[in-house]
Prior knowledge:
By secondary structure, the protein is mainly α.
Amino acid sequence: MRYTLSLLCILIALPAQAAGDPKLGKPLHDKQCVACHVKLLGGDGSGMYTRKPRLINSATALRQRVAVCSTQTNASWFPEDEEHVAAWLNQAFYKFK
């Protein structure tokens, strides 16, 4: 029983962690996201992540936003791809723990 409870706690905590690889996420981001962000905000598009007030305030919210954008742009990303992109954005801009 104790083992089962410990395993359950670990599994519940896993989605809160970014499991993606930022090195795999950057090219996906650059190919699918940058052009839209440049169109919306100008410049190099990074203002989407640095604007004030910041609209994304947690790693969970970041992953959810990446999933929504993936759907809206018909990126055809797998969930792992979304995790990779979220991991890169977190590393480059957000710095969530």
